[in-house]
Specification:
Length: about 240
């Protein structure tokens, strides 16, 4: 049986020693004068460089191959670092592109402190509508601050995985078409852009009673605030 290379035992020993130091110094918060998080990052980076270097040496490549490999790894590390540094800006760009390509998609913006705002546009009907994600499924909803609960049409309820046939339509509700009845249900998640809540109670309107699903105050009331700016409604997480 082939024995593991000596370098593997050295790497494992260093990793074990580093982990033990972190465990013993957990309460102190520092190891060799460094914060435990910094020490862990240095330990991980050092082991990664050692393994990569050993692989290059063991394969005995030419000088040109070594240079290309080092350049490739540096490019990968630079790309990962840049992506992490500008992660919020990249999320904003992706959200803007999606909002432009998919009608009704909300525009999410995250600032440097991690605060999220979502902009919803007013449609030709004069209402604020957005493409929400309920239980991970797309649902076009109208924002209705006059509705205490989020109400789904039967079709939308079925599309997010609810067993509509098992629902009990006994809850009286008022709609633009008058008083009707709805059934109580629950959504595991409701998301508008990058703002997500759940689980939340919802209602399902009886067939034919509602033409479009409504996003009510049981979602809107969880926000830190929202305001209307012309044809836009801005939601703040």
């Amino acid at each position: 049986m082939r024995r593991p290379p000596q370098l593997l035992w050295i790497v494992l020993a260093v990793l074990a020693a580093g982990l033990l130091l972190l465990v013993f110094n957990h309460d102190a918060g520092r190891t060799f004068g460094l914060e435990n998080d910094q020490f862990a990052n240095i330990l991980t980076a050092g082991l990664l460089v050692t393994v990569i270097s050993a692989g290059i040496v063991a394969s005995r490549p030419s000088f040109g191959e070594v240079t290309r490999n080092i350049a490739a790894w540096l490019f990968i590390l630079l790309a990962l670092t840049t992506g992490y540094t500008y992660r919020y800006e990249l999320q904003d760009i992706a959200s803007r592109v999606t909002a432009g390509l998919v009608p009704g998609s909300p525009l999410s913006v995250t600032d440097s402190e991690g605060n999220v705002t979502v902009t919803v546009e007013k449609t030709g009907s004069g209402h604020f509508e957005a493409r929400a994600a309920i239980n991970g499924k797309p649902v076009q909803v109208m924002v209705d601050t006059g509705a205490s609960m989020t109400v789904l049409t039967v079709e939308d309820a079925r599309s997010i995985g609810l067993d509509v046939e098992a629902l009990n339509f006994t809850v009286p509700v008022s709609t633009a078409n008058g008083v009707t009845v709805a059934a109580r249900a629950r959504a595991q998640t409701i998301a508008i852009g990058n703002i997500e809540r759940g689980p939340l109670p919802i209602l399902v309107a009886q067939p034919g009673a509602l033409s479009q699903s409504l996003l009510g105050m049981n979602f809107m009331g969880t926000l830190s605030g929202y305001d209307v700016r012309g044809d836009r409604m801005v939601l703040r997480d």
